[in-house]
From TrEMBL:
Record keywords: Glycoprotein, Ion channel, Ion transport, Membrane, Sodium, Sodium channel, Sodium transport, Transmembrane, Transmembrane helix, Transport
Annotated Pfam families: ASC (PF00858)
Segments for region (Disordered): 507-538
Stretches assigned to coiled coil: none
Protein name per its UniProtKB record: CBN-ASIC-2 protein
Family: Belongs to the amiloride-sensitive sodium channel (TC 1.A.6) family.
Record-linked PANTHER family: AMILORIDE-SENSITIVE SODIUM CHANNEL-RELATED (PTHR11690), DEGENERIN-LIKE PROTEIN ASIC-2 (PTHR11690:SF269)
Basic and acidic residues bias locations: 507-523
Length: 538
């Protein structure tokens, strides 16, 4: 009975269904036709299933698209950080007992270069035949030695703002020391960041060199008296410059720009902004997980994440932390001894063996930030000062202008020569007010899936929303039929058919038609008999 009930349900469904092929299968006139339409239905159903699989797989791959916009508007001026490449004044290092360890290191380095030193606690002499390794070992040792000195005791040997910056102009207007934020870098000593303070509002509405920051700086590798003031380990005379967004770690050691003495360095920058998608459509993060963020006081970037990863690797392998990078609350800085320096050297991967450096992409679980603003610099150089330029400065703290009244120099030529060896101009400006905004968004959403699914269903099965409602109704009827154990009527019985007014109406019409047909037949019969009777009478 139940099997017959299911047959009746499907038969009724096929008569009023809008699903493609189904009515053809149910109403086929012969077996061959029915088999043909069944084969067609299986084929289109298989194609629809294949396309459905592709749609689902595409959705769960969570593709993302990148929209690019070029915007043009007023921009906040970037943070510009400047440091003397020479971190400490050599004259102070030699005379201040707080720098005894640094002074001994400088002496050992100088003797290792000449080959007259036989041993030292830093292992410099062992590297004397490899100039690159010797310089790298001495630079690392200097950072470790300086880390033993408190910032307060370092102060006499650090370059003050007035030592470094002689003139400051922004968009043609003077700027002052209050526009800079000072911090102590483990490699470059005292550094000064322009426009880092959130209370400042330096912004530009015009591009070009005249609407940027202009600094005249003196790094003083030699004093006006001729005394050398650079450490023997300082290889370059100039300033280290960092350009970044407010709140970012300057990244001087990895992303800084070298601006040399005797030049005007014009740095044009362009802004690029990235807004990345979060999971599952992207891998961006706002910060490193709690407890692992070494740079929690700065905006999260890939650079801070990589530095934190390198520091964790250093602590794990050397049992001490590298002072070049941020230290965690429980970290102990490496000591300026050969064992610690050897370990730091091994982590770099030296120049004489195949030991690899740490693979940041594979060994660090770092993902890009969700919101990021970066500045791309382009540097051009010109000689400073020219042979005929009268070097002028309004500053009274430095060596002054090359005027005849300047007692620091014997002549204008001597003044110009000193500035050529110790002075420089730095200009930082926006190349254009337009910038690129890259926005990463979900590339394939639920709405896209529904649209594509409707298209494929209509193409292969002729389905529409009405068809879905019909099939839903079929499933509900079949479910009710199964639950009721076949007790639900799926066809009217004889009494219902007999009492159905529609059936009665049909029967009345049928009887009326039969009556009319009978009357019509009688009338035709009467018409045929009339003439014959007349003939008989005659």
């Amino acid at each position: 009975m139940r099997g017959g009930g299911f047959v009746q349900i499907f038969k009724d469904f096929s008569n009023w269904s809008t699903v493609a092929v189904v009515p053809h299968v149910a109403n086929a006139n012969n077996k061959i036709s029915r088999i043909f339409w069944i084969a067609i239905f299986i084929f289109v159903l298989g194609m629809f299933g294949y396309e459905l699989y592709i749609l689902i797989a595409k959705f769960f791959s969570y593709p993302a698209t990148v929209n690019t916009e070029i915007l043009f508007q007023k921009q906040i001026f970037p943070v510009v950080t400047v440091c003397n490449m020479n971190p400490y004044k050599y004259t102070v290092v030699k005379s201040n007992t707080n720098f005894q360890g640094v002074n001994n290191l400088m002496t050992a380095y100088s003797q290792a270069v000449t080959g007259t030193y036989t041993s030292d606690k830093w292992g410099l002499y062992e590297e004397k035949t490899e100039t690159y390794d010797l310089d790298a070992r001495a630079a690392d040792a200097l950072v470790l030695e300086a880390n033993l000195i408190s910032d307060a005791n370092k102060a006499p040997a650090l370059y003050s703002y007035s030592d470094l910056v002689q003139d400051c102009m922004f968009a043609g207007q003077p700027c002052a020391e209050s526009d800079f934020t000072k911090f102590i870098d483990p490699v470059y000593g005292a550094c000064y960041s322009f426009n880092e303070n959130t209370n400042l509002n330096y912004s530009v509405s015009r591009e070009g060199i005249q609407f940027g920051l202009k600094l005249m700086m003196t790094v003083t590798q030699t004093k006006t008296s001729g005394t050398t003031d650079f450490l023997p380990t300082t290889r370059l005379a100039g300033a280290r410059v960092g350009i970044n967004s407010r709140g970012n770690e300057p990244g001087l050691d990895s992303n800084g720009i070298d601006a040399g003495v005797g030049y005007e360095s014009a740095v044009s920058v362009t802004l690029t902004q990235h807004v990345r998608a979060k999971r599952p459509y992207g891998k961006c993060v706002a910060r490193e997980p709690d407890g692992t963020d070494y740079y929690k006081n700065y905006t999260y970037t890939l650079e801070t994440c990589f530095n934190g990863c390198k520091q964790r690797d250093t602590v794990a392998k050397c049992s001490c932390a590298n002072p070049r990078l941020a230290l965690g609350p429980g970290d102990t800085a490496c000591q300026p001894v050969k064992a610690d320096l050897d370990c730091l050297q091994d982590l770099k991967g030296n120049q004489t063996n195949s030991d690899p450096n740490i693979n940041l992409l594979l060994e660090c679980s770092c993902n890009p930030p969700c919101d990021e603003s970066t500045y791309t610099p382009t540097v051009s150089l010109a000689q400073f000062p020219s042979t005929s330029y009268y070097v002028a400065t309004s500053s009274t703290a430095g060596v002054g202008s090359c005027s005849s009244s300047n007692s620091n120099f014997a002549s204008k030529t001597a003044c110009q020569t000193w500035y050529n060896n110790n002075g420089m101009i730095l200009q930082v400006f926006l190349e254009t007010l337009s910038y690129e905004l890259y926005t990463e968004t979900a590339g394939y959403t639920v709405s896209n899936v529904i649209n594509d699914l409707g298209g494929q269903a209509g193409l292969w099965l002729g389905l529409s929303v009405i068809s879905v409602v019909e099939m839903t109704g079929l499933l509900l009827v079949m479910g009710a039929f199964c639950v009721s154990g076949g007790a639900i009527k799926i066809a009217p019985d004889d009494d219902e058919i007999e009492n159905d007014h529609r059936i009665k109406d049909v029967e009345d019409v049928k009887n009326e038609l039969d009556h009319m047909e009978k009357r019509h037949g009688e009338m035709e019969s009467d018409g045929d008999d009339g003439p014959n009777d007349n003939k008989k009478e005659k």
